[in-house]
Predict the structure.
Amino acid sequence: MLIKKFDGIRSSEITDKDLYLNRRKFLAGVGLGAVAAAGFGAKELFAPSMTALATEKIDGIQKSAFSTSEKITPINTVTHYNNYYEFSTEKEEPAGLAKNFKTRPWTVTIDGAVPKKQKLDLDTILKFAPPEERIYRHRCVEGWSIVVPWIGFSLSELIKRAQPLGKAKYVEFTSIYDPGQMPGQRRQVLDWPYKEGLRMDEAMHPLTLLCFGMYGESLPNQDGAPLRIVVPWKYGFKSAKAIVKISFTDHEPMTTWNLANPHDFGFYSNVNPNVERYHSQAYERRLGEFRPRPTLMFNGYDQVASLYSGMDLAKNY
Amino acid sequence: MIRWIKFGVFLLCLIPFALLLWKFFGPHPTDTTTWGAGLGPNPVEALEHGTGDWALRFLLITLAITPVRRLLHFPALIRFRRMFGLFAFFYACLHFATYLGLDKFLNLHEILADVVKRKYITVGFLAFCLLVPLAATSTAGWIRRLGGKRWQALHRLIYFSAIAGVIHYLWLVKVDILEPVEYGIVLAILLAYRLFVWLRPTMSPTAVARPKVAVD
């Protein structure tokens, strides 16, 4: 008779991997159950308090001539309606799932067509230029838009310091890959890590923002903390979040959404009411408004039109 | 008795509608001083998705009636099939109305362009259109007028409506196809059952019914 040797650990004792990875959530659930069982917090259960934002006030913010005077979208909307697939494909979920996301220590690697590859600490980058408030329209390819008072400075401030070589024609942004912290990355919904890119002249345009705050404070985790870019004349997915690497290349970078669906998500993806991609892009719904409003060419940022003179924007969408 | 059960089921089927209405007009989930924000920052989108989800769910429930009543020998379930089917149509109407009125604000130009050019809208529109004759001929009078065989043949359109509905959802999502695939799997099982019955004449309802009569 074959007697199976007992190796000391019964499979029933091994914590399920999902449970282990979600132990905080599990504990929170147990805690919540205990609270409910104790008869407290019934109100909390039916109306969970708004996710606390672990943000810090930013000092010395300067105003910017690039700001729109349009009505700013309430912060609660901007922090609870996020397309951030690294956390979840449901827009209401990143607010909760990103709560404990670690944004310090944080370094950004600068490589590719530069004289020397370097790893910059986030706090070094933040001192490159004084913080400016830029109130920008932000238009999602899904057909909604918001007006956000971002805080940052022109990406060109960083690019200048990286001293890209003459052959650098494009900039590639790589977002963090950390499935331990980002549950959405445990599913291959997109090809992680998230990558985005700009042509050099787009990246150098003063409107292109290297962003680390909004509404007077540092960026909330679900909005791309600690460092993201904001390109207001392009659909939102072009504005990469939680950036860990900036590479200078001589060729057009492969970008995540373009890889997932080249027909709908082109490399340029400028806001364009005349080019139908994914949806008709002629109208948008400003969150908080009921009636759709017409979408403007380049999201109303006509000053970038010269970047594309001579280009067929129906082809190079 | 059955009338009361039917009434109860009817009320249950209205719950999703009541919840959507309540969230649409009711108090903010966290700030009870403001109203009409229960569906989040984009209520039109939430209403569109919510009504669409329930239209699909009721289509699947309707399609599940026949297999469940046969496999579980629970023939009384047939009395609920029409109600579920009509609720599928009800939620599909709400879904379509939300799209027309709230999403597109009755902009005919945009709507026509959508239906013609965007395949996911085209197929969704088809799914809705296929339900119209079914809802219209759902009464006992129409069964009599058409005759049982013809009525049944007409009502097989629900298969195609459900298929079109799932494809509509599948083509609508950008990359995360998990949910539409889940609906697709349930639908595939429900349709596979019918194919199975059709291919194996011994499994046909009359063949199954005979021993049952003897037992009764």
In short: Chain A touches chain B through 31 residues (CB under 8 Å).
